[in-house]
Every structure is written in structure tokens, then in C-alpha cells.
User: Which sequence fits this backbone?
């Protein structure tokens, strides 16, 4: 048999396999239980969100009425022009907790400057889970090889759906939970890499949970890893919209989404 | 796509993810019965025809599908979607196998050429494609499966396993040679 024929055969090699009926029944029962749990977990969250929206609306009305907050159209002062900017602001101060600017992710240029960037994501928004990652690449000693540190953001009800034993951590001034290693390739940036490790953070932001997945390679240096952890440490966040979270964070030079 | 095992197990119409998880019992059952053979068959033939491992990865894929359905677009076909999750689980498995092999090699300080042996106990003389794949090192098996069986380009394979395209092409060449060498002489 020629090599060509051999690999044609490999390509065509697939087909059904006999499934143990006991396994089929056990898995179905397990999925039913997961499904019930998933369905149940949604309603309290929805009620909580509705209550929070009501509370925010009342608070806003009180704040405007008492003069604590001045609306631009009731005042001659100019509106803040940088509020919706997606460009980095290298020298800007830490965003205030009361109103975070809507900043963007760094983009695909590997030479992005250091500065304050941002991200906004919503619960269950696929774009918020998979393309909202970024990495910092360091070329290796051997041509073509590289190592990277990467961060992926998501808003989820459960940041540790793949399991693990969470430990308490305080990150960015937030008391949260952390799992390492976290074994779930779907949260890695650009897919899984051999020898990599992921640490998963669950950080409560108001009534929502920000998931931050930090992944690094076996060859990543302690300094590189520490630099990535400092990015996590710089996160400032607030609830956004009905079920979203907006964050700002500070990046060193060279992080990109490409 | 090559990973869809056979036309007989493909759903006749697309069942969307949201309908499956949030839908009624009948829709959920229909999705499960249509998807399970496809997902299990996909994994079974890619992990050394090891039923225990195929069951474990199948379970992980379905549980993650139910838990994380909100991440996915409702328009996605539910069977194709769970196959995508299964592929991630398979790559995770290859990663663990590769890591274990390196750990064992470091401990024993001798060359271990075959991390697949421990997981599936294939015969010493492989007699078909599954057995041949099972005796290859995890990385070589991964690139052959992703490239030839799943139909991914070299670039896509490189992205999946975290290697450069050049390194992946080289790995693929070594995998092809190892596969050709291990494939039974009588069948060539």
C-alpha cells in the first residue's frame, strides 16, 4: 500500500462505535441532573438582577434630585469626551470606582503601547467568552518557538465549571476565589498548548462574577508571569447593563489580541 | 466535515443549543440520542479505541455542553457544537498524556517512546488503524488525528497544539513516518 493510500485510509477512518447501554443511561441521568441545576440557577440570578436594576434606578433618581450628580444637559459644563474611547491612555490615572470609562481591548498589533485598556462583557455572550482574550508573546531561543502569557475574561455564573478546589484570594482589592491548575481548554486563548497551566479567578463585581483565566507556558519566566498577574491586580470593575461587567486594567507594552 | 462519523447518525435538521438545554424533555432526549453515537464514535476512534477513555471524554463533553450552553450562539447545530467541545477534551487528554510522558521520562531518566501504551494497552503488533494510532506518542497521534481525520489545516493544527506551523509540519512528518512504520506489514 502506498503512503498516499495509507493516509487516505486514515482520513476515511471513522464510524460508529458500540456504546455500553449502562453508560448511555448513567450519562443521561447525570445530564438531567445538570440540566435541572442549570435551569434552577438562572431564576434567582434573574430576580437578583431585576432587584438591582430597580435599586440603581431609585439611587440614580435620588442622586440627581439631591444634586450629588449633575446631568450634562442640565449644566453648561462639557461632556467627558474620552468616556467611550477605545484607545489606550498611557498616563491616565486609575479609573474612579463611580464611573469607569468604556475602553477597548488592545487590538492585534503586537507592539501595542502600555496603558489603560478595558473590556465589557455580558453573561452568556459568546463574544465575551472566546474572543475577549489577549496575550503577550515572547520569542524563544529557537527560531519559531515562543512562549506566551494570556488572559481571557468572561462573565459567568460559575467560573469553575470544569471543577477544581478553589482557594480564597484577594486580587485587585476584591475577595475572590482561585483554582490552579484549572483544566479547561475552552478558556485558553487561541486553544490549548502543550505544557501550559491555567489559573482561574472568580471575582465578584456587584452581584455578578468576573472570571479571569490566566494561562502561561512551561517556559514562561517568573517575571513574565508576575507581570501578567499585575495586570489582573490592576483590574477595576463595575456592573454594566442588565447582566454585564465593565472593567479597566493596565497593560505593559506588547499585549495584543492577535 | 470528516468528524461526522456517518450520515446515519446526523440529525436530519439542526437542533439549536438553546432549544436543547432549555427545551422540553422530548427535545433533550432527541438531541442526546442523536448526538451520543456521533460524539462517542468521534472520541473512540481518536483515543486508541479505549472504551473507558472514550466514555470519560464523552461524559466531560456533554456535561460541559449542558453547563455552558449560554456561551454559544443559539443558531449553532447542537451536535456539531458538542463535537467541538469533545475535540477540546481530546486535545486536553493529549496534553495530559504528553505531560505524563515527560514526567515519567524525567523520573526514570530513560527514554519513553510511547505514552499511549499506558492508557490503552494495545497489542504489541498493531493490526489496524486504531491500534496503530494507539502506539504512537501523544503529540504525533494528535497531529495525525487533527490533520487527517478532522481535516484541519497545518495552520489550524499548529494553533490547536500551540506550536509553530514549521514545528507542526515537522511533527506531522515524523508522525506519518512512525505511523507508516507501525502499520501492519501484511496490509501494505
Assistant:
Amino acid at each position: 500500500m502506498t503512503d498516499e493510500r495509507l493516509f487516505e485510509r486514515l482520513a476515511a477512518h471513522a464510524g460508529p462505535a458500540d456504546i455500553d447501554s449502562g453508560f448511555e443511561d448513567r450519562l443521561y441521568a447525570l445530564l438531567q441532573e445538570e440540566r435541572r441545576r442549570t435551569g434552577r440557577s438562572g431564576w434567582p440570578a434573574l430576580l437578583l438582577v431585576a432587584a438591582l436594576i430597580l435599586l440603581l434606578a431609585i439611587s440614580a433618581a435620588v442622586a440627581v434630585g439631591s444634586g450629588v450628580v449633575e446631568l450634562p444637559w442640565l449644566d453648561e459644563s462639557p461632556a467627558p469626551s474620552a468616556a467611550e474611547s477605545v484607545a489606550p491612555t498611557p498616563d491616565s490615572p486609575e479609573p474612579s470606582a463611580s464611573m469607569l470609562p468604556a475602553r477597548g481591548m488592545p487590538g492585534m498589533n503586537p507592539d501595542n503601547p502600555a496603558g489603560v485598556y478595558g473590556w465589557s462583557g455580558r453573561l452568556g455572550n459568546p463574544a465575551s467568552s472566546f474572543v475577549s482574550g489577549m496575550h503577550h508573546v515572547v520569542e524563544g531561543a529557537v527560531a519559531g518557538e515562543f512562549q506566551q502569557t494570556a488572559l481571557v475574561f468572561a462573565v459567568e455564573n460559575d467560573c469553575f465549571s470544569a471543577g477544581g478546589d478553589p482557594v480564597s484570594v484577594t486580587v485587585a482589592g476584591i475577595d475572590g476565589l482561585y483554582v490552579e491548575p484549572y483544566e479547561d481548554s475552552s478558556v485558553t486563548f487561541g486553544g490549548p498548548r502543550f505544557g501550559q497551566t491555567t489559573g482561574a479567578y472568580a471575582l465578584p463585581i456587584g452581584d455578578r462574577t468576573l472570571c479571569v483565566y490566566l494561562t502561561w507556558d512551561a517556559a514562561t519566566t517568573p517575571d513574565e508571569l508576575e507581570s501578567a498577574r499585575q495586570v489582573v491586580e490592576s483590574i477595576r470593575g463595575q456592573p454594566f447593563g442588565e447582566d454585564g461587567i465593565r472593567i479597566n486594567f493596565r497593560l505593559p507594552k506588547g499585549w495584543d489580541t492577535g | 466535515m470528516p468528524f461526522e462519523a456517518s450520515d446515519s447518525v446526523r440529525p436530519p435538521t439542526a437542533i439549536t443549543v438553546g432549544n436543547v438545554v432549555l427545551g422540553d424533555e422530548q427535545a433533550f432526549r432527541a438531541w442526546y440520542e442523536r448526538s451520543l453515537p456521533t460524539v462517542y464514535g468521534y472520541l473512540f476512534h481518536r483515543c486508541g479505541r479505549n472504551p473507558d477513555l472514550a466514555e470519560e471524554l464523552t461524559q466531560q463533553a456533554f456535561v460541559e455542553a449542558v453547563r455552558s450552553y449560554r456561551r454559544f450562539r443559539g443558531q449553532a447545530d447542537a451536535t456539531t457544537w458538542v463535537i467541538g467541545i469533545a475535540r477540546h477534551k481530546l486535545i486536553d487528554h493529549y496534553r495530559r498524556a504528553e505531560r505524563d510522558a515527560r514526567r515519567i521520562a524525567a523520573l526514570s531518566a530513560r527514554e519513553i517512546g510511547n505514552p499511549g501504551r499506558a492508557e490503552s494497552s494495545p497489542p504489541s503488533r498493531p493490526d489496524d488503524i486504531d491500534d496503530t494510532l494507539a502506539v504512537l506518542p501523544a503529540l504525533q497521534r494528535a497531529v495525525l488525528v487533527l490533520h487527517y481525520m478532522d481535516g484541519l489545516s497545518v495552520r489550524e493544527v499548529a494553533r490547536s497544539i500551540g506550536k509553530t506551523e514549521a514545528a507542526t509540519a515537522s511533527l506531522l512528518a515524523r508522525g506519518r513516518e512512525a505511523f507508516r512504520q507501525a502499520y501492519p506489514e501484511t496490509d501494505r
